[in-house]
Automatic annotation (TrEMBL):
<feature type="transmembrane region" description="Helical">
    <location>
        <begin position="302"/>
        <end position="332"/>
    </location>
</feature>
<feature type="transmembrane region" description="Helical">
    <location>
        <begin position="389"/>
        <end position="412"/>
    </location>
</feature>
<feature type="transmembrane region" description="Helical">
    <location>
        <begin position="352"/>
        <end position="369"/>
    </location>
</feature>
<comment type="similarity">
    <text>Belongs to the LIMR family.</text>
</comment>
<dbReference type="GO" id="GO:0005886">
    <property type="term" value="C:plasma membrane"/>
</dbReference>
<dbReference type="GO" id="GO:0004888">
    <property type="term" value="F:transmembrane signaling receptor activity"/>
</dbReference>
<dbReference type="GO" id="GO:0005789">
    <property type="term" value="C:endoplasmic reticulum membrane"/>
</dbReference>
<keyword id="KW-0675">Receptor</keyword>
<feature type="transmembrane region" description="Helical">
    <location>
        <begin position="257"/>
        <end position="282"/>
    </location>
</feature>
<dbReference type="GO" id="GO:0006898">
    <property type="term" value="P:receptor-mediated endocytosis"/>
</dbReference>
<protein>
    <submittedName>
        <fullName>Limb development membrane protein 1-like</fullName>
    </submittedName>
</protein>
<keyword id="KW-0256">Endoplasmic reticulum</keyword>
<dbReference type="Pfam" id="PF04791">
    <property type="entry name" value="LMBR1"/>
</dbReference>
<feature type="transmembrane region" description="Helical">
    <location>
        <begin position="155"/>
        <end position="176"/>
    </location>
</feature>
<keyword id="KW-0472">Membrane</keyword>
<dbReference type="InterPro" id="IPR008075">
    <property type="entry name" value="LIMR"/>
</dbReference>
<keyword id="KW-0879">Wnt signaling pathway</keyword>
Amino acid sequence: TCLYIVSYLILTHFKKTAEYVTGELWLCTFTLSVAVCAVLLLPISILSNEVLLTFPQSYYMQWLNGSLIHGLWNLVFLFSNLSLVFLMPFAYFFTESEGFAGSKKGVMARVYEAVVLLLLLALLVLGIVWVASALLHDNIARKSLYDLWEYYLPYLYSGISLFGVLLLLLCTPFGLSRMFSVTGSLLVKPRLLEDVEDTLSCTTFEEDSLSRKLNCDSTSCWVKLNMEAMKKEYQTVRSKRIALEMRRKASPWQRNLGYPLAMLVLLALTVMCVLMVCFNVLELLLDETALPRGMEDPHLGMASFSMFGSLGAAVQVVLILYLMVSSVVGFYSSPLFTGLLPRAQDTNLTQIIANCVSLLILSSALPVFSRTLGITRFDLLGDFGRYNWLGNFYIVFLYNMMFAGLTSASLIKTVTWAVQRELIRAFGLHRLPLTVSRSTVPFRLLLASGLSKIQ
């Protein structure tokens, strides 16, 4: 209930103010709450085990057991399937439907059209899944033709989870590198050798100059200006001026300690993830039990899932949440999905549906992603451990190697360029006249236009 309320508040913050609250928004709220619950599956399971280890004989912890956690995993798996296969497609079809031609217009006509389209889509997807299973496993495809619940739906969700895990493989390394720039934009950077007062004065003069040009009447200005480009430049300069004012007003502790400490924490978390993945690669080469697998009974309170005890379990929880945040940052920062980024009070219902589906795919693949990389030793519960590709050594091994390689390359590139950029800015090398400065462009344009008029 709490997750549902929080999800509703988040969606109402982003949806357009002109749109009313409809049934599609309630379905999106349910899907987003399921996505958040899928993110919390592994942290809740790991922390529950540590709590039972700490208080083995506590009367108040009797309700916390393996059966409860196992049931939670099954419910999240069920609701994830329900949202991906039925609720979100129905919400999209209902949003785009207008009713069949010749039918009486109204809500029920739109419901009938959405249901018919959903049935056709279900038949199409099941047909594709059956053809794929026949190509891969011809001996059991005919026998399991009518086995919808026990074979086709798990097979379908196995493919969806594989797509989600591959999407995490692409988004997470990029997101890990982007976390440094995103965190840096939210914090106040140290001044080093930069004179903030001088830079702020120059930026203020530039902003005033652009403001006067924008307020100038087009009939009175004898130079034809590109107003759209000038508006974008004005917004950029204004944002820079606000950031400089924040840096000037920041306290010495916030300016000199907060930013380096945050960067060191991010660097430590990223390096820790890479080291754990490298250790998991060595375990895969030496021990077959390191492969991710499913289990029926979690046996909570028997032993810690980390060799470092409660501290290691807490680190696992932090790393899992950090990977999820990084994957979301990388997803919305990639050129393919930048258009899905929601805007406050300016996101239509179709974009909200697409965002909920994307977040659900990423979050439902997070437990498999974390276990495949060896971030945690907590094996997958319920139907999460029934995926067909989990027992394939080559897929798991190549996945770990690709993640370690991509993350290391992104981290080295980000840190190298960041250090180089800060050194250039600190020593004032960016002010050297190596290229044409933006401040000289208006004067040169003015001179060229004046000479052309004189000629």
